[in-house]
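Q: Here's a chain of 396 amino acids. Please give me its 3D structure as tokens.
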Amino acid sequence: MDRRQFLYGGTAGLTLASMPSSRLLAQATPLFDPVGAIVPIRATPDRIFRTTVCLRPFRAVGPRLDAERIGHKLVVHNYGHGGSGWSLSWGSAQVVVAKAMEQSPREIAVIGAGALGLTAAITAQRAGAKVTIYTKDRFPNVRSARATGSWTPDSRIAMADAVGPEFGELWSRMAHSSYAMWQSYIGLPGDPVEWNDRYVLSDVPMAQFREAMHATEISGFAHYADRIADITPRPQELPTGSHPFPTAYATRNSQMMFNVADLAHQLTTDFLLAGGTIKTAEFFDPHDLTRLKQNVIINCTGYGARALFRDESIVPVRGQIAWLLPQAGANYGLYYKTVSVLARRDGIVVQDMGVDDRFGFNDANETPDIAAARTSVDVLAEVFAPRLPAAVRRPT
């Protein structure tokens, strides 16, 4: 996830955010349903039950989805999705499985058991193959387990000047396919996928807030909001006094969310019940894959492909999450200052997004910064702390 995704109310909101404010207000959905009671989040450092770091595998040219021969094996690659791995996983799986099935193999090997690996394995099963996943780690010890959990299909997906002209159409197909598949998981026991409301909070008018955000953006990242405007809700500006937050200004939007713990369990169970097998294995060189019995292999190693395939085009984008204990009734997200919050059923995600897109870029440090985690929770606490009337506030 990146700051644009949250600030402008999901992907389609990005297009709206670039419009003049008069057009934005004209097209905004009428506030026919007032904001209901918001369960305050208990934002105290003692409620942090873990702090995690995830390295998102960014490639300027976009995800690698090609095939190559290694010895007598056909290896189809499926990695490098930046902050869009969960969001694009089903659509990406359709692309790579189609290539893997061109030779009508009876058996397929999948390397990696994260979001891309599990969805590719299930897709290959449904295409008629017997599938074995080979992986060093399983949930919850894979990087996909440390994802924010938001539907962000173009989050750091590529650089606009590096991808080919055909990528936008490919991305659109993957995004629409994934979106449709994820809808089938809504309402299942455990709520592995669900929709919730997100709020962007500001002490200044939203037009001024957006202008300030535009001023700090780093140009060059590819954005494809207009290609999925048909499936993404529009943000609403909330009139002052119509919401329970202490800021004068706010917007609301609905966005899809992944409860990753339940979702990973659901996907793993689906794979195993369909006859799949998971084996522990570690690979240090591409030629290690030649010892597998399967002749067709789908490589879903994510950031691990940088070392395994010596792919220096992969740039790590570091993201850290302070996890607060789950709270009954807290089922929303918000953005305040530079901190995004997503109250999931498997924990409340508190994440500093930084002041611009350089935050975390090319930072491969996976050691948690506990002080930074506490600071992000302190910022969240400001949202729910009592505020003095403006006339009696101390000057800052």
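Q: Can you summarize the key feature?
A: Residues 167-183 form the longest helix (17 residues).
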